[in-house]
Design a protein that fits this description.
Protein name: Phosphopantetheine adenylyltransferase
Radius of gyration: 16 Å
Strand order of the largest sheet: 3-2-1-4-5
Family: Belongs to the bacterial CoaD family.
Strand content: 15-25%
Distance between the termini: 49 Å
CATH class: Alpha Beta
InterPro entries: Cyt_trans-like, PPAT, Rossmann-like_a/b/a_fold
EC number: 2.7.7.3
Organism: Desulfomonile tiedjei (strain ATCC 49306 / DSM 6799 / DCB-1)
Largest sheet: 5 strands, parallel
Number of domains: 1
Shape: globular
Number of helices: 6
């Protein structure tokens, strides 16, 4: 039987519980999920590539069905190179869908072998984004409950002004 592999791309700066929830739900459909950190020079990144890889690896707690690596270039080419046939995208709101749908159509044009699967974010994480978490911690707020414990500790080291709830 053919192994069903999906790629879950993003910048994950930082990785949060919404990301983790999408990965866990994807594993109900796919045998393996590759968390792929895209290198996007246009995005303002707070954490290094190595720090983001470390946060993800420690957050998935050694699950052998989940791997994590960086990629550069076209997502569909990277996905093909891994042997995956699916891309996972998480959606929080209708506004996410329009942009993600455009990307999915372009990816489909570039490779007919790759399918895009949209997963709705769980209700409790609808408002959570890496951007909101960064803004919160930079202002001294705590993202407790919104990020895995390991990520919370990394954030507290990088932003010592974070106050507990």
């Amino acid at each position: 039987m053919c192994e069903k592999i999906a790629v879950y791309p993003g910048t994950f700066d930082p990785f949060h519980n919404g990301h983790l929830e999408i990965i866990r739900r994807a594993l109900c459909t796919f045998d393996r999920v590759i968390v792929a950190l895209g290198i996007n020079p246009e995005k303002e990144i707070v954490f290094t590539l190595e720090e983001r890889l470390d946060m993800i690896r420690n957050s998935v707690q050694g699950d052998p069905r989940i791997s994590c690596e960086a990629f550069d270039g076209l997502l569909v080419r990277y996905t093909e190179s891994t042997g995956a046939h699916a891309i996972i995208r998480g959606l929080r709101a209708v506004s996410d869908f329009e942009y993600e749908f455009q990307l999915a159509l372009m990816n489909r044009k570039l490779s007919r072998k790759i399918e895009t699967f949209f997963l709705m974010t769980a209700h409790r994480y609808l408002y959570v984004s890496s951007r909101i978490i960064k803004a919160t911690v930079m202002a001294g707020g705590s993202p407790e409950g919104l990020v895995p414990d390991y990520v919370l500790n990394v954030l507290k080291k990088k932003f010592p002004n974070i106050r507990n709830h």
